[in-house]
Amino acid sequence: MIHYQSLFFLLITLLPVGGSNDRLPKTKFGIFRVQPDETTAVMDGEIRRRTLQDFEKMIARYPDLEIIQMREVPGSLDDETALALSVKVHLRGIRTHILDQGEIASGGVDFFLAGVRRTKGTHTRIGVHAWDN
Question: What is the pTM of this model?
Answer without folding.
Answer: 0.79
